[in-house]
Design goal:
GO molecular function, one term: oxidoreductase activity, acting on the CH-OH group of donors, NAD or NADP as acceptor
Number of strands: 7
Keywords: Oxidoreductase
Order of helices and strands: EHEHEHEHEHEHHHE
Organism: Leeuwenhoekiella nanhaiensis
Shape: globular
Protein name: 3-oxoacyl-ACP reductase
Radius of gyration: 17 Å
Family: Belongs to the short-chain dehydrogenases/reductases (SDR) family.
Distance between the termini: 48 Å
Length: 246
């Protein structure tokens, strides 16, 4: 049986790394796309023999088609795409400049569209594939000081539904995972330095704790595998109930 091939953008750290680990552990050849060569290579070594790397800055849209074509040729197929890479910026609404807003939309939304379009060309020829977009709690309710990020992630959820309808005739499923507050180095640092925010986060999370990165990896794998073969166009919150907590 042919080994499946996955592509995870931003797969060298955080939730992207946890996702890549799950896919590698399930014997899926997993390409991690990252900007930083050293960091990406280190991740590959940690992930083991099923991991591959491709160094690319997704902000450089014109380089994406060539990158996807190269990976498809080298690997023979692309069966799974996880659009995980993204950037954030905390800033008061009135202080956000046009350029800052566009930079976040460019990376978090436009590059996801371009990568998905190019990967779809490969998946269409196979008449199969699963695309998983990564959203955020910012698309579920209002979080202060992240207007550009919120706009990008809300758009990702809408795009997921639109893509699901467009691509279903080609045997391609498109779904979305919306992580809640997950225990990563970055989130721990942010919450530990702001006890009030940490209490607020835990207070509105019915399960009363932060999630583990592996929780996201497991959910992505569900969407990537035949376990969800009749599921497309959905957004699954993996958040301990945070999005519905009061």
């Amino acid at each position: 049986m042919k080994q499946l091939v996955a592509l995870v953008t931003g797969g060298n750290a955080g939730l992207g790394f946890a996702t890549a680990k799950k896919l590698c552990d399930e014997n899926i050849i997993t390409y991690i796309i990252g900007r930083n060569a050293e960091k990406t290579e280190q991740a590959r070594q940690e992930l083991g023999p099923n991991a591959r790397t491709y160094i690319l800055d997704l902000a450089e849209l014109d380089k994406i088609p060539q990158a996807i074509a190269h990976i498809a040729e080298e690997a023979g197929s692309i069966d799974i795409l996880v659009n995980n890479a993204g950037i954030n910026m905390k800033k008061d609404f009135l202080e956000v400049t046009d350029d800052e807003f566009q930079r976040i939309i460019h990376t978090n939304l436009t590059s996801v569209f371009v990568v998905s379009r190019e990967v779809t060309k490969v998946m269409k020829s196979q008449n199969s594939g699963s695309i998983i977009n990564i959203s955020s709690m910012a698309a579920q309710y209002g979080i202060p000081k992240v207007v550009a990020y919120t706009a990008s992630k809300s758009a990702i959820e809408g795009m997921t539904r639109s893509m699901a309808v467009d691509l279903a005739p080609f045997g391609i499923r498109v779904n979305c995972v919306a992580p809640g507050f997950i225990k990563t180095n970055m989130s721990s640092k942010a919450l530990d330095s702001d006890p009030e925010r940490k209490n607020k986060v835990l207070g509105r999370t019915p399960m009363g704790k932060l999630g583990e990165p592996a929780d996201i990896g497991d959910t992505v794998y569900y969407y990537a595998s035949d376990l969800s073969k009749f599921t497309t166009g959905t957004v699954l919150c993996v958040d301990g109930g945070n999005s519905i907590g009061f």
